[in-house]
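Quick check before the chapter quiz. The format below is the same one you will see on the exam, so make sure you can read both the input and the output lines.
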Amino acid sequence: MSRSRSPRSPRSEQPARAVAPWVRTRLRTAPWAAASLAALVLVTAYLAAALPRAVDAYETEGLRHDIRTAAPRNSVLELTAEPPGLELDLPVREAGLAPAVLQKQRDAARALLPEPLRTDPEQTVHGLRTVKRVDGLDPWLPRPDGISPEFVLSSPSDLAEHATLRAGRLPAGTARAPEAAVTVKTAEALRLKPGSVVHVPGRVSAEPIALTVTGIVEPRRPEGPYWAVEPLLRTPALAPLVGDEIKYYWQGALLLSPGSAPAMLSTTGEPEVFFRYMPTSGHLTGRDTDRLGAALASAAGGPDLVKLREVVGPTGALLTELDEIVDAYGSMREAISPVVAVAVFGIGAVAAVVLAMTGGLFVARRDSELALIRSRGASLTGIGLRLLGETSAVALPAAALALALAVATVRGADGGSGGIPLLPSVLAAAATALVAMLVLPLRAVVVHRRPRLHGGRDDLLTARPSRRRTVLELTLLVLAVGAVASLRLRGTADSGDHLVSAAPVLVGLIAAMVLVRIYPLPLRWAARPARRLRGAVGPLALARAGRASSAGTLPLLALVLALTTAAFGGSVLAGVADARDRAALLATGADARIDGSVEWTPVPADLTEAVRGTAGVRDVAPLQIEYGVSLPSPGNSSAQPMSSALVGVEPGSYTRLAQRTSAGGFPAALLASTGKGGKEAAADTERVLPAIASPSVARRLGGAPQEIVSAAGVFRVKVVAVRSHTPALQGADFLLVNAADLTHRTNTALLVTGPADGAALRAVVKAKSDALLVSMRAEERAGYVDSPLQSGAERIYLGAIGAGAGFAVVAVLLSLMQSAPERTTLLARLRTMGLTRGQGRRLLGLEALPQAVLAAVGGTLVGWATVPLLAPGIDLFRLALATTPGFAPLDSAPLRADPWSLVVPAVAVVLITAVAAAGQAWWAGRKGSIKELRAGDAR
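Here is the expected output.
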């Protein structure tokens, strides 16, 4: 018998459909909370996604900049080979040097250059040249000291495209009747003109080779690769010949036509074939550094050189200094990257804590709701998945939008987004979204892992750290100690050791945990005397601060990390600026330096007063500097010879300069004049001049007067003081005396204080002498910022400081928002008991200040301690100066604590907290208290 089924039975077997989807309902009931989370995720994900793109962009621009701005003679790729061998007949050898043959070899060799090496076809030059200069035999050629001029014979291709004809015609000629052109400067110096015939020695016969000059050309781009690789082609040089006496002779170049190039085979110049390729950098990225170095090594002495020799012959060789440029870039990047990583870890930690605080705020606001759901049988998995759906609906679109904005706004070195890998930005944005998505459900699951009724007090005064927390803190302490020790011992040389880069963050984390543990103590100490105060605001505020939720440790952690990051970043930037200032000061000695390009260039007598009258000049210190003065060796005739610079100074002005620059200051009375100076005292060689010496000179001269023989006169000196450095000289031994006591008085330099306008000062100097140069301290300082690597790293640090400040403000606001409903209810109830609005504002302000003051003091102390703790392992030299140690006035640039970076952020945190609390009290006072005083409201 069949059983009848109710028509409604199939529907009864299916689960009831939800009246409204959970996620949509929650987002509609709390739109502002969702919008706030989306904004925070958007900003954080944008910073995270933009960071790797910004680093890649400035690293790429740094590599391209170094190659682009290098001198052509350093960056050129020059492939050379011997001409066809002597075993071949002369016609065969000449045929092997035909223009068409050399051009074919040039194009074939260029195609064999390994990636990522690429060259500019417009700047490619080939031809034949003499390695050894040949003598000009004609008697009419200029001979300053009776020595014949020497010529380089070269046949560069495409001369007509790189030079403008000024006289005559471009050379044509053949191997039997060679023709050449010369530049305008060569023609003027060596008395050449169209029609001149220059004879050079022949290799086989005694009959010289005649080269006819047919034209005079003017280089179109003298500083371009075509002319700059071998400057002698465009500009002759008066070279010295050092022997018993120095004699000078001319060196110049004759530019033969390609058809005349085989004539060099008959000269004594040892000709060679050359192919010059100028590398391009527009296609390179910072990630190509290793590939580029490997390609250069292969082309210079590896498998690719074998391929090149198959084209140009078995003697082919590739010569370049581009590998040194790439190596220098790589070493600078390796020196800067770990320092940048410290800032990245710091701001990343602060951002992670702020995202965790956001999740904590949402859980606290919905604690009663989640507790009710859990008590009615909801599973942890169901609660977690629903909360994950809420946060995913907000965080994923925000992170995607942030990624798109980062790609659109942070462009590559060429202004486009091509070349920058997208994966690091995608991973960074995804990590941010993942943290934002998981922090709320995970925190809710942990808090509500067991159904619970209304709990007891959960504040900082009564909370007891669990064993798990103690183990975690000890683990972090061990990691922090290891990171600090590693950083102090090894420095930041290992860019792959992220534990070292995270050392400041770990130190700040440990400090924050220590502050959380000791936080109840100052509150208890302050509560006792507060009870004796008149009024209830003070004791009540301290009691309320002590009853803050134990979850309030996250704001404290965020603030301490933010302040530590700001202090460290500010100290890095201050150390970089200080190093540049000191290097520029050591290089010039003052704000401006006026001296000659060669020694003993006299300063006109009236120039000193003219400089004093220049706008902005506050002081002028005239100097007389004589280099290489031999020093006597008292009591030790076998001592090695030693020389020093003798510096005659005006004690008053020089002492003021030394004190202003903190460079070996001394009382002016130490160099008091003896009253015996000038030509009248030339015969008095026994007079004793007080002198200030460098340490090595002082050890050499001892304490007794010693005779000095110099161009400034013959006299004795007695060392009265020792200084390690002085403004007049950089890194050299010196002997300072009063210039008024010298026999022959002539100023050779002026150290000027105050001028900011180099053009005005140069105009005054040029009006008096063309032999003097003006060096400005500001210009010298600007020259130390020569690489996009430096400026890019500094922008990262500035961005980290700004982002840290922003996250600190967010942490303060989140901390106040978490307890805002409870505070509003408290104010409403206390107002019914007679509390005035002013007292309410003071109450909220005093309640919020203890934690802010603790974070400010703790962050300042941690930042102050972190800098000297980590300073031995961090050298800012490569970040500050665009050179290597040994090529700059400084040997190192240590990290030093910057007071402004320590104090200003801490004070700002306290002020922002006070203003935010006052604003919250004002807003609560404007609202009615009916809602907060409703019956049955437990909180």
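If your answer matched, good. The chain has 31 helices and 21 strands.
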